[in-house]
TrEMBL record:
<dbReference type="GO" id="GO:0006260">
    <property type="term" value="P:DNA replication"/>
</dbReference>
<keyword id="KW-0235">DNA replication</keyword>
<dbReference type="GO" id="GO:0007059">
    <property type="term" value="P:chromosome segregation"/>
</dbReference>
<dbReference type="GO" id="GO:0000811">
    <property type="term" value="C:GINS complex"/>
</dbReference>
<keyword id="KW-0539">Nucleus</keyword>
<feature type="domain" description="DNA replication complex GINS protein PSF2 N-terminal">
    <location>
        <begin position="12"/>
        <end position="71"/>
    </location>
</feature>
<feature type="domain" description="GINS subunit">
    <location>
        <begin position="75"/>
        <end position="173"/>
    </location>
</feature>
<keyword id="KW-0159">Chromosome partition</keyword>
<dbReference type="Pfam" id="PF25005">
    <property type="entry name" value="PSF2_N"/>
</dbReference>
<dbReference type="InterPro" id="IPR036224">
    <property type="entry name" value="GINS_bundle-like_dom_sf"/>
</dbReference>
<dbReference type="InterPro" id="IPR056784">
    <property type="entry name" value="PSF2_N"/>
</dbReference>
<dbReference type="Pfam" id="PF05916">
    <property type="entry name" value="Sld5"/>
</dbReference>
<dbReference type="InterPro" id="IPR021151">
    <property type="entry name" value="GINS_A"/>
</dbReference>
<comment type="similarity">
    <text>Belongs to the GINS2/PSF2 family.</text>
</comment>
<dbReference type="GO" id="GO:0000727">
    <property type="term" value="P:double-strand break repair via break-induced replication"/>
</dbReference>
<protein>
    <recommendedName>
        <fullName>DNA replication complex GINS protein PSF2</fullName>
    </recommendedName>
</protein>
<dbReference type="InterPro" id="IPR007257">
    <property type="entry name" value="GINS_Psf2"/>
</dbReference>
Length: 186
């Protein structure tokens, strides 16, 4: 059941996963299928062993029916994630990551972990990366200015996590900045 907008402070993680499932991903089909039209577009044809690009929602559906193998995105590997974790822990700014990396990684690891090389290590690296990025965003929020908050390279899930706090904080800071100037006018 969806909450009314007045009670919802942010989009839920499952809703973000649903949004991310519109992204295209490569698969290796195990079946042949003609081009299929959906509201969001036409996909296919599927001809094994040729790779094909499909939305994640369709790829996961086929994977669950054992009709394809999902090809993980190039960033979903140990070397890339280890490099990004090293950067996150050694540099003050956020390193660039795909905007919906957390959601896409979760979907793929939940549905197609057998298609990912060393999924347990990747899960561990993603968890460490998430914790390092959360620590940076908490540190960035302590330097909150009433006019702006600059945290470049934040990802969808991270923006969603700080949104409720940020909105309330900006409202309070705006009131505090206005009050002293209003008192000085009297």
């Amino acid at each position: 059941m969806a909450l009314p907008i007045s009670l919802r402070s942010s989009v839920t993680p499952p809703e973000l996963e649903l949004i991310a499932s519109e992204q295209l991903i490569e698969i290796i089909p195990l079946i042949s299928m003609d081009k299929t039209a959906f509201i969001s577009g036409a996909y296919g044809p599927l001809r094994p062993p040729a790779k094909c690009r499909l939305p994640i929602w369709m790829a996961t559906n086929l994977k669950l029916k054992k009709k394809c193998h999902i090809v993980p995105p190039e960033w979903l590997n140990i070397d890339f994630l280890q490099d990004r974790l090293t950067r996150e822990t050694s540099q003050p700014e956020f390193c660039a990551m795909p905007f919906r990396f957390a959601e896409v990684a979760k979907i793929i690891l939940d549905v197609a972990s057998d298609d990912v090389e060393n999924p347990d290590k990747i899960r561990s690296l993603l968890k460490d990366l998430r914790e390092a990025r959360q620590a940076k965003s908490r540190e960035g929020i302590t330097k909150l200015d009433h006019s702006e908050l600059t945290l470049p390279n934040l990802c969808s899930m991270e923006i969603n996590e700080i949104r409720p706090f940020f909105i309330r904080s900006m409202g309070v800071l705006t009131q505090l900045v206005r009050e002293p100037s209003a008192a000085g006018d009297i």
